[in-house]
Specification:
- The protein is an alpha+beta fold and about 120 residues long.
- The chain contains four helices and five strands, in the order αβαββαββα.
- The chain has helices at about 5-10, 30-40, 75-85, 110-124; strands at about 20-25, 50-60, 65-70, 100, 105-110.
- The strands form two sheets. A three-stranded mixed β-sheet has the order 1-2-3.
- Helix 2 (about 30-40) links the parallel strand 1 (about 20-25) and strand 2 (about 50-60).
């Protein structure tokens, strides 16, 4: 799934003045798709005045969703749950991961962490 298609798949969630900023690695794509599906189902029928997702990004080895406007407590719970879940999902491949830090925080599985360390060693 290409993340740039989210505004077309879920138009009620992305009605902001600017296109949403979505900058995450492939491993979290499924989380974001599941989140959008759940939010869309939780919103009342019709358009929700003023609600839209502004950005979806990685922040401190955790998915971070910024949104604007009126929303229900259920929508807030969905976003909080997905952000929490992201701390256990490898942001590169989507397998079970954990937060790691060595100057830069990442949420990676053991395999992707080993690959990252090999690339760093080769580069430096």
């Amino acid at each position: 799934m290409m993340l740039h298609s989210l505004p077309f798949l879920y138009p009620r969630l992305f009605l902001g003045k600017e296109p949403p900023s979505i900058t995450i690695s492939e491993g979290w794509h499924r989380l974001v798709l599941d989140m959008c599906t759940a939010i869309d189902a939780a919103l009342p029928n019709g358009m929700v005045e003023g609600f839209y997702i502004e950005s979806i990004k990685e922040k401190r080895a955790r998915l971070s969703v910024s949104y604007h406007g009126t929303y229900t407590p259920q929508v807030e719970d969905i976003i909080d749950a997905i952000e929490d879940l992201s701390t256990t999902v490898c942001e590169d491949c989507g397998e079970t991961g954990r937060q790691r830090t060595d100057g830069w925080m990442r949420c990676l599985c053991d395999f992707c962490e080993k690959e990252r360390l090999i690339r760093l060693k080769r580069a430096g």
